[in-house]
Design brief:
This is PPM-type phosphatase domain-containing protein. This protein is an alpha+beta fold. It has two helices and four strands; from the N terminus they run E-E-E-H-H-E. It has a two-stranded antiparallel ribbon with strand order 1-4.
Length: about 100
C-alpha cells in the first residue's frame, strides 16, 4: 500500500458536479479512501468482464451493427474509468514524499 507523508491529493474514481474531477487529501486510510479502492476494484472487474463479452461478440458473425455500437460505447466508458484509475495510481506513485509501507 502506498501512503504519503506529504498529503498528495488522490484523484477519485468518480466525478463531481458538472463532471469535474474529485480529489481526496489524506493518508489513504479513511473511509473515502477505502470506498475509492472498492469502486476502482469494481470498475477494473467490470472492464475485464466487458473485454470477455467483446471477444465473444466479435467472434459472432451474426452480431448486429447495433450490438457492436453498444459494446463500443461501453468500452469507451470502461476505458475512461481505467484511464482515471491509472492516472490516479501513477500520480500517487510518483508523488514527492511518498513512503511505501508493507500491507
Amino acid at each position: 500500500m502506498i501512503r504519503h507523508t506529504a498529503e498528495a491529493p488522490r484523484l477519485l474514481p468518480w466525478t463531481g458536479a458538472e463532471g469535474k474531477p474529485c480529489y481526496l487529501v489524506g493518508d489513504g486510510l479513511g473511509y473515502v479512501s477505502r470506498l475509492a479502492d472498492n469502486v476502482e476494484s469494481v470498475q477494473l472487474g467490470m472492464a475485464a468482464a466487458l473485454l470477455d463479452h467483446t471477444d465473444d461478440l466479435l467472434s459472432d458473425r451474426s452480431a448486429t451493427p447495433e450490438q457492436l455500437r453498444y459494446v463500443i460505447a461501453r468500452l469507451a466508458e470502461s476505458l475512461r474509468d481505467v484511464h482515471r484509475i491509472a492516472r490516479s495510481r501513477g500520480a500517487r506513485h510518483t508523488a514527492p514524499g511518498r513512503v511505501d509501507h508493507p500491507e
